[in-house]
Specification:
It is built from seven helices and nine strands. The chain is of the alpha+beta class. The radius of gyration is 23 Å and the shape is flat.
Length: about 300
């Protein structure tokens, strides 16, 4: 069943949550408490280890012994994050298929829906080798196919000593949405910086504020200006503000728009060890984050043939 308004999602979500999701959550509360207790014990051990090493070094921290002082903290942090993520993954595998009944014909998958090659072809990201996904969704809204991926793109280098260094190119949400009207060219909207990557010729636009914020290049100048009307540019700026995103960029080609929303927030999160499993607030947050992506369709009027 396909929904055609944000309110449809909200209304159906309330019904599905109370009837089908909430009863399923009861069995996870005890498991969550065990995971939380485990993390507390690990933190206590980490603090004890740090104090022990400080005692050995007469509470004098030097470059030589700094390693032993900070390792327990970072080791504890990594283990506790793993425990939290493991519980969240187990909870989502059990409840997300039920939660998605509230989202019409959308499906949740713990893997990517937007291929590596597609991301390369957008030319939004100068360099990346690794594509790591968390929560991903796909379905239709107002007749448009939509893919939503919570994604991290990165590449790795080695220094002169052979040590590996990870460089994160993108962290946030990628939303690939059909355009109602077909386009043959490729238009790219990038955050403007001191030096901008350039795949094609820059497009001069009517909105000076938009031009200060974004660098636009395209292989078809006429088509790019047809897409980027003053109303479209205004709505695009509104979306960035509504997400409080550090950056928002887009690639328009093959009758699709791919929007890259840069954010460090862990979206679509469930199973916080510091909350009751049946805390409705975290499910409401998930709903709000999900429908905010769909609202892009309404804001940009992507389902209309004209009036872009």
């Amino acid at each position: 069943m396909e929904f055609n308004s944000i309110q449809d999602f909200r209304t159906n979500f309330t019904h599905v949550y109370h009837k089908s999701v909430a009863p399923k959550l009861e069995s996870f509360e005890q498991e969550k408490n065990k995971a939380r207790l485990t993390t507390k014990i690990i933190w206590i051990l980490a603090v004890a280890a740090t104090v022990f090493f400080l005692f050995l070094f007469n509470f004098q921290i030097t470059q030589d012994n700094l390693f032993f002082v900070i390792v327990p903290f970072f080791l504890c942090l990594g283990i506790c994050r793993w425990i939290g993520k493991s519980f969240e993954k187990k909870l989502k595998l059990a409840v997300m298929p039920i939660v998605m009944r509230a989202f019409g014909d959308f499906a949740w998958v713990p893997g990517g829906t937007i291929p590596y090659l597609t991301l390369q072809q957008t030319r939004l990201f100068d360099r990346f080798e690794d594509q790591k996904e968390d929560d991903c969704f796909y379905g239709t809204y107002k007749g448009l196919q939509i893919n939503i991926d919570e994604t991290e793109l990165s590449y790795t280098t080695r220094d002169s000593k052979g040590n590996r260094h990870k460089h994160i190119v993108f962290s946030g949400v990628l939303a690939q949405i059909d355009f109602k009207k077909p386009f043959k060219g490729h238009t790219i909207i990038r955050t403007r910086g001191l030096f901008n990557s350039k795949a094609y010729e820059e497009v001069k636009l009517e909105d000076p504020e938009f031009s200060k914020m974004y660098f636009v290049d395209a292989n078809d100048q006429i088509e790019a200006r047809y897409i980027l009307t003053t109303s479209f540019m205004e709505r695009f700026k509104n979306i960035k503000n509504s997400f409080s995103a550090s950056q928002m960029e887009a690639s328009i080609q093959d009758s699709k728009i791919l929007i890259a929303i840069h954010t460090t927030k862990d979206l679509f999160k469930l199973g916080d060890l510091n909350r009751p499993v049946n805390d409705t607030k975290q499910f409401t947050e998930l709903l709000n984050e999900f429908v905010s992506i769909l609202a892009i369709v309404d804001e940009l009027k992507l389902n209309q043939n004209i009036g872009l």
